[in-house]
């Protein structure tokens, strides 16, 4: 715009850089500047923080393992006499625990042959399946700026719907499974959709509503489980359903020796779907716009209210998929009110660790599946309390919630450092993790 | 008190915000610090006020080198700051605000409000401020609130006062009064640093002018320099300060607004029976001091206000009560007042922002799927056409400078088929170069036969763009006058006085 009006005598000191970039760094080679920018993006980016958070949590976990280990405690008694003993004991306890964790979750070298050795990995994926599904649901809500803590309720309703179809209805194999899955999805979606509707219509805060609906769902399902003719197994007095009919159960993916079932495929499909939804569809575009800046979205003609409703419908459906996988894949012998297995809450951690990105959630879910699978063998083989795994999981959340802490520990530059004195727009806590 | 800044350098990462800045302010001098947004004025003042620590250089007061660890030290050394956004608590009284942070208490810890009241009274009498120490801040007009800020600084024995863009929120009359106060303070021996980018004010009140560009002092000027000289020093190239436009080629009456009322969330009538019309090919500027109903009026036009009565018709179709989506689809382009809050999604890329209000259908969406290839081509074309300075179409909008952000908004709105353009505060916070660009675009839109409404609180902009001017005061239109109306008349109208020779519409 300036070329035609460029003055004959330009004031001294004028630089060739564009006039509209008062903030642009100067006096530097453009190439090296781009390099350091890219470096900042990678290091300061969210993925790096997630990886470092896991690493830090494992380090702290190692310290705790060493502290609670009996040989270490004994050796510490004569630390100054023979310090070598102490370090050997620490090494034994920590390496033993983490190698047990690895062998329990990925590959067991002590078993003969690949088919037996790889079994832990399939266990990991089995545990990961519902975590990924629920994590996707929670993560999707995060991207729309909503905190869905209602995973438990949505899972229970979905499990009850899918489970009822699976044990009470007679349909041909295949169709039966599809109908049961659809029933579960609808159940979860409706339970989530109520939240979206209440938020859109009345402004009710989704955190309160989802927590309350967890209780409603829990006691509703408990009632159904205790009432003969509804969910309770006929002839039993336990609050438990009859087993699922084989026609409605997810088939084994790798044969009967492994627990991994076809539900894993539904989760992979769900991950692809959420990826497509968020980054390729116009609905996802509106979701993200509302999540990042609802004011601008409203001014741009996006119906924020209906976005809330549709986002919670989809979020609830995804969390519901976790409940479906529990009853049609993992526990097919009938379920009780504890079928959610706290996955609805673990999913929040998974979504945070995965930075609310579909593939990030997928891998975070696999990691948490590995913790679950490996935690048991760690306890069995090394006597390390399984609570250590819980502590490590919790520490991951803590480190992710405090990126400045992680950056300070690793002396990383703050991303997007802006030298303006004007306050930059503060990102929402939930979307930023 | 004589203030000297010697070789102040402040860097943020690779960016040098202040590069060896030297500045001397003599006792009893009004020293204007002139520069575009982002030139480093605010950084420099934050260093002076102890909010930032300089990487190099020193602050010298009356020959003594100072070390400020925080604003408290700066205040104790006699430096006061009147911030652009007032640091006052609305539900406290004037006296309570003045003593905030320096509360005097008796033995039992009871606040000594009497002393604060006396201090306010004393300073207010000395400068003729007429301020009641017991008035609540929220009940006071903006201009008076600013005086409370001044009293606050003076009550802490400030002998160097920094005014950070003080006139942004004032009416022309209030601005004149502030100038008078600044002269008075100067008489009393206070040194004043006056930060601004408004050239006229600088020339009116400053004794000396220092111009900063890109973190460096690029020159000193005397108040006798012309606007053009100052502007080119500020921007680094010649700029056109006046908007060039031809006579409007008027068309039919496109937008007709009759008897429009808006009731806000607090049940206040914020727009009061407003009627006007805009013809194709003209710019109607809605002028007035911030907060007199302009925002709500525009929100009503855009379908963003829930409780609206009256009629809004664009080319014969009623727009009232329609959703924002339908109003945008009716061909209304909208440049919102607060572009970072309402105009852009900072975490979206430039390309995504360019389709922000077109996410429902062709050409950007087909069968529910984003047409990414089309969007990329479109974005590249618009980035070139509107000269948006960005690393690429995938850069985040939040990383652009204000001027480039506004260009993104303009590019988005002007690339649709428009029947009306509504631009609110289109150049707020922009540098001179970007202002020039935005104004040219608005005039080009008008010359294409599209009716344009501009809302502005800047008199220069009002006079420069307008074919007709509607002045708003307390929710009503005081009068609609030709674009050639003198500034003094407009200034009076902004205080609610109808223009001579016209009758009040409201």
UniProtKB/TrEMBL annotation, chain A:
Membrane topology designation: Multi-pass membrane protein
Region annotated Disordered, chain positions: 1-33
InterPro entries with a match to the protein in the record: ABC_transp_permease
GO CC annotation: plasma membrane
Cellular localization per UniProt: Cell membrane
Major location (coarse): membrane
Highest taxon of source: Bacteria
Cited CDD domains: TM_PBP1_transp_TpRbsC_like
A GO term, aspect molecular function: transmembrane transporter activity
Keywords: Cell membrane, Membrane, Transmembrane, Transmembrane helix
Keyword Transmembrane: yes
Residues that span the membrane, as ranges: 42-67, 88-107, 127-146, 175-198, 207-225, 258-278, 359-376, 388-410
The protein's name: Nucleoside ABC transporter membrane protein
Source organism of this protein record: Cryobacterium psychrotolerans
UniProtKB/TrEMBL annotation, chain B:
Subcellular location: Cell membrane
GO CC annotations, alphabetized: plasma membrane
Keyword Cytoplasm annotated: no
Keyword ATP-binding: yes
Pfam families on file: ABC_tran
Topology relative to the membrane: Peripheral membrane protein
InterPro entries the UniProt entry points to: AAA+_ATPase, ABC_carbohydrate_import_ATPase, ABC_transporter-like_ATP-bd, ABC_transporter-like_CS, P-loop_NTPase
Top-rank taxon: Bacteria
Keyword tags: ATP-binding, Cell membrane, Membrane, Nucleotide-binding, Repeat, Translocase, Transport
Molecular-function GO term, any one: ATP binding
PROSITE patterns: ABC_TRANSPORTER_1, ABC_TRANSPORTER_2
PANTHER family (UniProt xref): CARBOHYDRATE TRANSPORT ATP-BINDING PROTEIN MG119-RELATED, GUANOSINE IMPORT ATP-BINDING PROTEIN NUPO
Name of the protein described by the UniProt record: Nucleoside ABC transporter ATP-binding protein
């Amino acid at each position: 715009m300036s070329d035609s009006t460029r003055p004959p005598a330009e004031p001294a000191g004028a630089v060739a850089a564009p006039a509209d970039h008062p903030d642009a760094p100067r006096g530097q080679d453009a190439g090296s500047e781009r390099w350091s920018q890219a470096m900042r993006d990678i290091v300061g980016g969210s993925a790096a923080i997630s990886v470092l958070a896991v690493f830090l949590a494992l380090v702290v976990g190692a310290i705790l393992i060493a502290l609670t280990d009996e040989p270490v405690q004994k050796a510490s008694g004569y630390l100054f006499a023979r310090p070598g003993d102490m370090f050997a004991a620490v090494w034994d306890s920590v390496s033993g625990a983490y190698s047990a964790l690895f062998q329990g979750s990925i590959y067991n070298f002590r078993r003969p042959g690949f088919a037996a050795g790889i079994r832990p990995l399939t266990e990991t994926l089995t545990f990961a399946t519902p975590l990924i599904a629920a994590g996707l649901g929670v993560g999707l809500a995060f991207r729309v700026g909503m905190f869905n803590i209602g995973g438990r309720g949505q899972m229970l309703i979905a499990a009850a719907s899918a489970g009822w179809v699976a044990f009470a209805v007679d349909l041909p194999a295949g169709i039966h499974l599809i109908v049961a899955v659809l029933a579960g999805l609808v159940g979860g979606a409706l339970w989530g959709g109520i939240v979206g509707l209440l938020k859109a219509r009345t402004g009710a805060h989704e955190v309160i509503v989802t927590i309350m609906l967890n209780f409603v769902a829990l006691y509703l399902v408990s009632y159904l489980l205790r009432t003969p003719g509804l969910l309770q197994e006929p002839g039993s007095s336990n609050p438990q359903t009859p087993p699922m009919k084989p026609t409605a159960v997810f088939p084994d993916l790798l044969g009967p020796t492994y627990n991994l079932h076809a539900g894993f495929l539904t989760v992979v499909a769900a991950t692809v779907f959420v990826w497509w939804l968020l980054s390729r569809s116009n609905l996802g575009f509106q979701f993200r716009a509302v999540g990042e800046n609802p004011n601008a979205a409203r001014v741009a003609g996006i119906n924020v209210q209906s976005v809330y409703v549709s986002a919670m419908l989809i979020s609830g459906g995804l969390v519901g998929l976790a409940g479906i996988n529990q009853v049609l894949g993992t526990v097919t012998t009938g379920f009780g009110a504890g079928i959610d297995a706290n996955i609805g809450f673990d999913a929040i951690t998974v979504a945070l660790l995965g930075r609310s990105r579909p593939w990030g959630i997928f891998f975070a879910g696999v990691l948490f599946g590995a913790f679950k699978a490996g935690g048991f063998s760690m306890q069995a083989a090394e006597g390390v309390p399984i609570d250590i795994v819980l502590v490590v999981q919790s520490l991951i959340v803590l480190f992710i919630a405090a990126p400045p802490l992680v950056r300070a520990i690793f002396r990383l530059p703050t991303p997007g450092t802006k030298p303006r004195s004007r306050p930059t727009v503060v990102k929402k806590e939930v979307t930023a993790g | 008190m004589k203030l000297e800044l010697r070789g102040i350098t402040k860097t943020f990462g690779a960016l040098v915000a202040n590069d060896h800045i030297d500045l001397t302010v003599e006792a009893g001098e009004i020293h204007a610090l002139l520069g575009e947004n982002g030139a480093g004025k605010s950084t420099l003042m934050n260093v002076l006020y102890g909010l930032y620590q300089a990487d190099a250089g020193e602050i010298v007061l009356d020959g003594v080198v100072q070390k400020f660890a925080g604003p408290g030290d700066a205040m104790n050394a006699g430096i006061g700051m009147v911030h652009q956004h007032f640091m006052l608590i609305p539900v406290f009284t004037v006296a309570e605000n003045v003593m905030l942070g320096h509360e005097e208490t008796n033995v039992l810890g009871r606040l000594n409000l009497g002393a604060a009241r006396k201090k306010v009274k004393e300073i207010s009498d000395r400068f003729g401020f007429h301020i009641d120490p017991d008035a609540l801040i929220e009940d006071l007009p903006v201009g008076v609130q600013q005086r409370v800020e001044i009293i606050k600084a003076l009550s802490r024995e400030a002998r160097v006062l920094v005014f950070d863009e003080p006139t942004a929120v004032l009416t022309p009359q209030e601005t004149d009064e502030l100038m008078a106060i600044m002269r008075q303070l100067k008489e009393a021996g206070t040194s004043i640093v006056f930060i601004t980018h408004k050239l006229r004010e600088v020339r009116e009140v400053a004794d000396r002018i220092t111009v900063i560009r890109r973190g460096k002092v690029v020159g000193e000027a005397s108040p006798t320099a012309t606007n053009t000289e100052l502007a080119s020093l500020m921007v680094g190239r010649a700029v056109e300060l006046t908007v060039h436009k031809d006579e409007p080629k008027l068309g039919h009456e496109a937008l007709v607004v009759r008897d429009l009322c808006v009731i806000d969330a607090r049940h206040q009538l914020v727009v009061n029976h407003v009627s006007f019309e805009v013809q194709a090919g003209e710019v109607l500027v809605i002028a007035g001091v911030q907060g007199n109903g302009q925002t709500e009026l525009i929100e009503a036009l855009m379908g963003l206000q829930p409780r609206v009565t009256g009629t809004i018709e664009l080319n014969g179709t009623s727009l009232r009560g329609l959703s924002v989506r339908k109003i945008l689809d009716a061909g209304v382009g909208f440049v919102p007042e607060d572009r970072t809050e309402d105009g852009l999604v900072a975490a979206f890329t430039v390309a995504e922002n360019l389709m922000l209000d077109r996410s429902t259908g062709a050409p950007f969406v087909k069968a529910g799927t984003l047409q990414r290839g089309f969007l990329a081509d479109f974005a590249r074309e618009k980035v070139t056409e509107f000269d948006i300075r960005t690393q690429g179409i995938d850069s985040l909008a939040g990383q652009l400078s204000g001027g480039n952000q506004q260009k993104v908004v303009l590019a988005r709105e002007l690339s649709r088929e428009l029947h009306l353009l509504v631009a609110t505060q289109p150049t707020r916070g922009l540098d001179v170069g970007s202002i020039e660009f935005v104004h040219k675009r608005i005039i080009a839109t008008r010359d294409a036969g599209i009716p344009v409404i501009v809302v502005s609180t800047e008199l220069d902009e009002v006079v420069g763009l307008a074919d007709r001017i509607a002045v708003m005061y307390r929710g009503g239109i005081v009068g609609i006058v030709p674009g050639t109306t003198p500034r003094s008349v407009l200034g009076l109208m902004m205080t609610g006085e109808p223009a001579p020779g016209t009758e009040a519409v409201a």
